[in-house]
Amino acid sequence: MRFTSEQRLDDGVREREFSLGEIPGTLWTPRTAAPVPLILMAHNNGLPKNADRLVARARLSAAAGYAVASIDTPGCGDRPRSPDEERARADFRQAMQAGGPADEVFESFIGPLVEKAVPEWRATLDALVELPEIGGPVGYSGWAAVGIGLAAVEPRIAAAGFFAGGYVPRAQREAARKVTVPLLLLLQWDDEGNPRQLALDLFDAFGSTEKTLHANLGGHLGTPWFEREDGDRFFGRHLR
Amino acid sequence: MRFTSEQRLDDGVREREFSLGEIPGTLWTPRTAAPVPLILMAHNNGLPKNADRLVARARLSAAAGYAVASIDTPGCGDRPRSPDEERARADFRQAMQAGGPADEVFESFIGPLVEKAVPEWRATLDALVELPEIGGPVGYSGWAAVGIGLAAVEPRIAAAGFFAGGYVPRAQREAARKVTVPLLLLLQWDDEGNPRQLALDLFDAFGSTEKTLHANLGGHLGTPWFEREDGDRFFGRHLR
Q1: Contact yes or no for B184/B235 (Cβ under 8 A)
Q2: Which domain holds residue A9?
C-alpha cells in the first residue's frame, strides 16, 4: 500500500489517496493518535470513490472518530474498463433509456462488478489493518451486494450497514443468510429503481440475530441527514 | 387537575400522581425550572399507566429533559369497568385462550377503548399545557391506535412515535392518512400478535411527508434498548 497524496481537512481529518497494486483508494483518519476502528465504505453499484456524497459521509464519520476507507473496484470509478465491462455498461444504459432494465440485464452488469469487488476489498482490508493508526473491529457501510459478499466470507467484518437502494444479484441474495453480524438496513420507501418488497425480503433473509431496518419516505436520493448520525451510533455500539 | 402525591427520584425527576375528574394520571418532569416540551405516553391496548416498562421509559425521557404524562383511560388500568367493558374483556380473554382472537373480537374489545381514550387524552392535554413547567410543542409516544385517533384531530400534537405492536381498529386504520406530523413507527419484525404486513400497510398509509420505520428482529417484547434513545432523538428533532 502506497500513499500518493495527503491533505489535512479543517476538522483535523487526514485524507490520503493510496494505491494497492491496481486498486486506487482513499483513507480518511481522525485527528487522534490512538488506533481507531475502521469502516469500509462502498458506494452503490460502483459509483466512484470520489463522488461528493460518499466523500461527505466519509469525512463526517472520520471526524466522529473512525478510519474510513473507500476504493474503486474493477469497472468502477477511474478504473480502466475491459471490452466486456464496456459492453455490459452500454447494454445497461440502453436498457435504462428504454424504461428500466430487466433482471437479466442487471445480473450481467452488476453481478460481475460485485464478484470482482469482493476480493479487492479483502486485499484492501489486509493492507489497512497493518497500519498503526487502525485498530479494533471493522465495519462495512454502503453497497449492499458487495457488503453481503464480503460479510459472508470475511470474519473480520463485525457489523454492517447496507443501503437497500441498488440491485442485489441472485448470488448475493442467496448469500444473505450467511451474513450473521449485527446489521442496519437502510431503505428509501419509494425508491424508483428498487422494489420495496425485494428489500423487505432481503431484510428477512439475513442470518443475523440482531438486525434493524430503517425505512424513510422518499426516493432513491432522499435519505434524511439524521440517518448518517444513526449509522455512526450503530457502529458506535458494535465497533467501540 | 389535582396533584395527589409527589416523589423526587434520584436523578431529580419529579413524579406526581394527579386526578382530572375521573381520569387518574402520572406526570414526570425533569429537574430544570424552565418550561419543557411534553410527551404524552400511552401503553398499548390499555395496559396500566403504572406498568414497569412504561414507568421506566417515562422516567428516562423525563431525565432527558421532557415532561412526560400518562393516564389510565376508560376500561384500562385502575379505572372501574362497566358491564359492557367486562364482557368485551372476557370475550377477548376467551378468544386469546382459544388460539388468538379474530378481527371482530379485536374490534369490539379495542375499538371502544380507543374511542373513549381519545377525548380523555385531549382533556388531559388541555390541563397539562396550563402548567408553568410545560411549554413548547407536544409529542405522543406509544399505543398506535389512540395516537392515530389523537393526532388526526388534535393540532397540538407536533410529532408522534407509534409502537406497531397492537391491534389498530378499522376506524384508526382509515384515519391514518389524516396523520400528517413527522412520525416514527416502531415494529417488532416477528411480533406474535401483530401481522407484519398490517404494520407495513399502516406505515404506507400515514399522510406524513416525514415518516420513518424502525423494524427490529424479535417478538412483541423484544424491542432493543437503543430504540428508546432513538425515540428521544426523534423527539429532540421535532420538539426542541
Answers
A1: no
A2: 2-79+112-239
**B-chain residue closest to A231, CA distance:** B230
With an 8 Å Cβ cutoff, are A210 and B200 in contact?
Answer: no
Interface A-B, measured as beta-carbon pairs within 8 A, has a size of: 45
Optimal mutation site among A183, A209, A214, interface B, most CBs of chain B within 10 A? A214
Asked if B217 and A237 come within 8 Å (Cβ–Cβ), the reply is: no
Residue B100 has pLDDT above 80, yes or no: no
Asked if residue A44 belongs to a domain, the reply is: yes
Question: What is the C-alpha radius of gyration for chain A, rounded to an integer number of angstroms?
Answer: 17
Contact state of A213 with B214 under an 8 Å Cβ cutoff: yes
Buried b / exposed e across B92-127, counting CB within 10 Å, b at 16+?
beebeeeeebeeebbbbbbbbbbbbbbebbbebbeb
Flag whether A23 is in a domain: yes
What's the CATH number where B206 sits?
3.40.50.1820
ipTM of the complex, rounded to two decimals = 0.89
Q: Which helix (H) or strand (E) holds A117?
A: helix A103-128
φ and ψ of A217, to 5 deg: -60, 140
Rounded percentage of chain B residues whose pLDDT exceeds 90: 78
Give tens-digit pLDDT for B55-86: 999 999 999 999 999 999 998 888 988 898 89
Q: How far is residue A175's CA from residue A9's CA, in Å, rounded to a whole number?
A: 39
Question: Which tens digits make up the pLDDT trace of A35-91?
Answer: 999 999 998 777 889 999 899 999 999 999 999 999 999 988 889 888 988 998 888
Contacts of A200 in chain B (CB under 8 A): 200
Contact A216 B216 (CB under 8 A): no
| Residue A131: inside a domain | yes
Domains: count for chain A: 1
B208 touching A, CB under 8 A?
yes
Structural domain includes residue B85: no
Question: Is residue B233 within 8 angstroms of chain A, CB to CB?
Answer: yes
Q: What digits encode the pLDDT tens for the residues B25-53?
A: 999 999 988 999 999 999 877 788 999 98
Higher pLDDT: B130 or A94? It is B130
A233 has a chain B CB within 8 A of its CB: yes
